[in-house]
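Input sequence (113 aa), recorded before submission:
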Amino acid sequence: AMYLKNIVSVVEISDGSWTATFELIIDNINPNAADANYVLEGTLVTVQYIYGTKKRTRILIAEADGTCTITTVSLPENIESVDLTVLKIANRVSSWQPGLFDKVGVTKTASGV
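Predicted structure, token format:
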């Protein structure tokens, strides 16, 4: 079964605006139980980030080590935070059940203030 291993965020603030970059790390709780074709690379991770009253949904593609990264659009300084939520992790060999094996919550907040 797939699980969310970690989410970290880095905020970059420039004059009058800011961006948040989130790095997600996924893994398989028991890769030995998966078939011989099992790899993390190419796993699709669907995320949504919400800022103010706006939502953006994106599909990320995991690297071989299970990492994938998303950077938000440039956010105005009156937006104080952005929430990123993992909606789906899709791997043909292994399934994901939110919260079952996850090491971190499926939502991460980054603050620009």
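Checked by second reader. The two ends are 37 Å apart (CA to CA).
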